[in-house]
Amino acid sequence: MAPRSKPSPLLGGMSAARFLRDHWQKKPLLVRGAFPEFRDPLDPDDLAGLSCEDGVESRIVREKGGARPWEVTWGPQREADFAKLPKRGWTLLVQEVNRWVPEAALLLEPFAFLPNVRVDDVMVSFAAPGGSVGPHIDSYDVFLIQGRGERNWRYHTRPTRDRRIEPDLELRILQEFAADADEVLRPGDMLYLPPGFAHHGVAVTSCLTYSVGFRSPCAGEVWSSFAEAAARAHPGAGALLEDPPLAPASNPGAIPEALRERVRALVRSLDTSDEAIDRWFASFATRLKPGHELEPPRRAPDPKALLRRLERGDALVRSEEARWAFLPAKKRGLLLYVGGTEIPVAGEARDLALALCAKRRHDGRELVALTKRRAARELLARLVAMGALTSPTRTP
Fold it and tell me: Is 199 a domain residue?
């Protein structure tokens, strides 16, 4: 975890507070050796095998040599097709590798100075020499961590103004791109890019790159989701809108003032208190993405047996299917949100809930120390029964 106020090698010797003040969503940051002695959590063959599995989002991009320029082949990929690919000029990208490879999920841990609700995923790409997805702009913050091999990154150091894209392509490739920074990243190096900064990465050698992404919802999505949630929660949501006393219409196209007043009052009757908005946002921001689902164990865990396993040293990890967050509540309690589900947490289980939100992997004995009170034991058992906490094994 990057320290909040102390200098951090991850951030080029600056503190997390300074990074957030000077760089986050403002300007890029290149950090040499951000991950000293970096070890890839998977190899190219592992990534190719993962891309062949159902339910795993992947694509192969070829700038040239396909049926059309910048050809995209969407997964699941076919194992036999990899043998047909050329030695140069192609890239395999696999989304949400943190869902399938626990070691890849741990790449998110150093970025724990950022809120869980902003986490998008860890995308992993393998590129043959010359492989690229073209100059483009992302709509999210991304930390590009270089694994094995080398990749050349050309990028803008100021927000990109010319955003015209090439027509009739599957990828959103910029028509014009003149970089003002040009760097080669080697194993352990990292490049942070805010949204709206054009960039173009080309493999110098065969290489693996880990894109740790953080995403914000757009304003329209926030408005529509809150309105829908507030309407569902209103006790009169199913009642028909009754007309006020009406006078004969002089023109049927005119909307009577009394009717407009009634509609205004109805809309304003939605609960827009700070508490209602906060609770909606916590659920909205941790909601399960399409295709994500918490998988409960076949048998509900026996709380005593669960604790015995943890005392022996078994570990638990948070499911990467769901985001975790919390809000304060009365009497030292809090409201825990996991995959959009709100879970009231009593004060006796507060420390456990905070610990579970703080990191992804948990030593069993540490968890046992946090479950001395009954409320904490019940919370732990409930989260395991939901599938929100699981054993640290790969589940493709």
Answer: yes
Q: Do 23 and 163 fall within a single domain?
A: yes
Are 62 and 124 found together in one domain? yes
Residue 358 lies in a domain: yes
Phi, psi at 378, each rounded to 5°: -65, -40
Token pair of 215, please? 């995403």
CA dihedral 124, 129, 133, 137 (to 10 degrees): 80
Are 98 and 230 in the same domain? no
Give 4's pLDDT tier (boundaries 50, 70, 90).
low
Q: What is the pLDDT of residues 26-82, one digit of tens each?
A: 999 999 999 999 999 999 999 999 999 999 999 999 999 888 899 999 999 999 999
Tokens linked to 51:
């891309």
Say whether both 210 and 229 belong to one domain.
Answer: no
What is the tally of structural domains in the chain?
3
Determine the Cα–Cα distance for residues 197 and 32; give it in Å rounded to an integer: 20
pLDDT digits (tens, 9 = 90+) for 329-386: 988 999 999 999 999 999 999 999 999 999 999 999 999 999 999 999 999 999 999 9
pTM over 0.90, yes/no:
yes
For residue 67, tell me if it sits in a domain. Answer: yes
Query: Which long-range contacts does 375-381 make (Cβ < 8 Å, 24+ apart)?
Result: 375/345, 375/346, 375/348, 375/349, 376/348, 376/349, 376/351, 376/352, 377/303, 377/307, 378/303, 378/349, 379/336, 379/343, 379/345, 379/349, 379/352, 379/353, 380/303, 380/306, 380/352, 381/301, 381/303, 381/306
Read off the CATH number of the domain in which 73 is found.
2.60.120.650
Residue 95 makes CB contacts below 8 A (sequence gap 6+) with: 56, 57, 58, 121, 123
Residue range(s) defining the domain that contains residue 151: 9-214
Say whether both 80 and 193 belong to one domain: yes
